[in-house]
Amino acid sequence: MILDALNWKILKCLQQNARQSNAEIGRQVGISSPAVSERIKKMEDAGIILGYKTVVSPLDMGYQLKAIITLRAFIGKLKPFLEKVKTYDEVLNCYRITGNENIVMEVVLKNQKHLETFIDQLIIYGETKTQIVLSHVTRFKEIKPIK
């Protein structure tokens, strides 16, 4: 599917606030609510819009630490880890990457003891490195058209 300027405007509106009504989006981009709805449905069907989520504050939910953990898998341990990581509640995002490490995970933890326990579960799969997140510099940046 090729995105025209109108679709990009709709995507911009949705990325800023996915809860706004189609009528509100239509007012912003200059088309009717049914036309907005049709375009959104086409972008969903094409896999451009992957879904809608509620962003929850880990701190307000009781998690005191957010960390980035990299894993350099031991020989023969990468595939088992790729299955196991899906079961960890602490892991918000997990990426398989190139370079010296194989995996980057974004995790939330209750406290330092929880971090220690979690790392103990990971070290059977490989060597880990942990960085504690102090703050977000950018977050959920809008995807823009390629120039």
TrEMBL record:
One of its GO terms (molecular function) is sequence-specific DNA binding. GO terms for biological process: regulation of DNA-templated transcription; response to amino acid. GO terms for cellular component: cytosol. It comes from the Bacteria. Keywords: DNA-binding, Transcription, Transcription regulation. PROSITE patterns: HTH_ASNC_1, HTH_ASNC_2. Residues 3-64 form the HTH asnC-type domain. InterPro entries: ArsR-like_HTH, AsnC-type_HTH_dom, Dimeric_a/b-barrel, Tscrpt_reg_AsnC-like, Tscrpt_reg_AsnC/Lrp_C, Tscrpt_reg_HTH_AsnC-type_CS, WH-like_DNA-bd_sf, WH_DNA-bd_sf. It holds the Pfam family AsnC_trans_reg. PANTHER family: HTH-TYPE TRANSCRIPTIONAL REGULATOR LRPC (PTHR30154:SF53), LEUCINE-RESPONSIVE REGULATORY PROTEIN (PTHR30154). This is Lrp/AsnC family transcriptional regulator. The lineage of its organism: Bacteria, Pseudomonadati, Bacteroidota, Flavobacteriia, Flavobacteriales.
